[in-house]
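Supplementary Methods S3. Input chains for the assembly prediction are listed below.
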Amino acid sequence: MPPLQLPPNLKFGPFSVTSQVFHLSPSRLSFGLVNLKPLLPGHILVCPVRSVPRLSQLSATETADLFNTVRHVSRTLQRVYRATSFNFAVQDGVDAGQSVPHVHVHVIPRQNGDYDDRGGGDRIYDAMDGEEGDIGKAFLEMQRMRDQRLKDGTRDFAGGPDSDRKARSEEEMKREAEWLRSEIEKDRVEGEGEA
Amino acid sequence: MPPLQLPPNLKFGPFSVTSQVFHLSPSRLSFGLVNLKPLLPGHILVCPVRSVPRLSQLSATETADLFNTVRHVSRTLQRVYRATSFNFAVQDGVDAGQSVPHVHVHVIPRQNGDYDDRGGGDRIYDAMDGEEGDIGKAFLEMQRMRDQRLKDGTRDFAGGPDSDRKARSEEEMKREAEWLRSEIEKDRVEGEGEA
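Predicted structure tokens for the full assembly:
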């Protein structure tokens, strides 16, 4: 597949995102990105292209597209991650636990008992709000690794074992994003075949 | 205000709802209802009028209306409950904690430190998934109280102190719904004044 034609200077809050993006809605108002630290396999984020912190700042058209994009990508997530349920959650503002000031819908595929080893299904929310799910911190770390590699004048995995690990993780995300995109494409083609 | 003209036989899952409903969207595709057991003041639910369990079963138009209704009623909730943030959450399917098989968006107004006395902000999700937030159970209890009153041949608060308490709670919900509706109406009129 040719690379996704993303809007110029696409950002998630203050962070540049390109290789993590696996989907852009046909109206180009919403995009999906894979997570740096998924709480469960297939945990992704869906965001409006226009970077605003609060849902109330979106237009009716942007809101409609955002949640229809959630619905759309969930169909593929359900299939490829064998999900039986989903959690959809928005932390709308700092006092609701938002760590990146850009509207984002958490989409978390669920299966029976998937979180039992971590204290039961409802603990996923603790994880989302806690250190483990701190998206802002994870993005900051990634940014720091990128800056370090630029400073070192290397394009590949450089630095100590630690930065090496982070860099691989970025590669992993890119692979996951490409794979998800191709799976969504399959559903689209099949869906059109049905019509 | 005249009573809301609700669609005939409006239900939330298997439960009849009338007096708890505080909002019907202009397209009549979505409605808002006050909660039997709000986890925080102003915790309400927004649902599609068509009773289906999963978000994937809604049309694009229904999905758009559902989340624009969330956005719409949140404006009033923010004002009247002095909210600085919101949690929006959908438990989409049993394995995500859904207890009533009818799509519902939890809308929870938040303030800084509002859940500190119960272990911190992220505990709200535990509550949502646990006994305290079991909407299905709460509705079943209410239904049982209604049936009992019908069986007893009484229309008012009858039975022991326990059923009395539950009945008052239904009255409370009705008052809250009427109040919220009038506050949303104020925002609508003011909003139109601006245009």
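Residues 11-154+164-176 of chain B form a domain with the HIT family, subunit A fold (CATH 3.30.428.10). Chain B has one domain: 11-154+164-176.
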